[in-house]
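Entry 14. Structure prediction run on the chain below.
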Amino acid sequence: QPKHPMLSTVVNIIQKENILGLWKGMTP
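Output returned:
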C-alpha cells in the first residue's frame, strides 16, 4: 500500500471506475 492515504484512495477510485467502465462496455 502507498504511504500516502490520499494516493491510495485515488487509486481505489480509479480502479473502481475502470471496473465500472469494463462492466458497462461488456453489457449491451
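The CA atoms of residues 10 and 16 lie 10 Å apart.
Filed with the rest of this week's runs.
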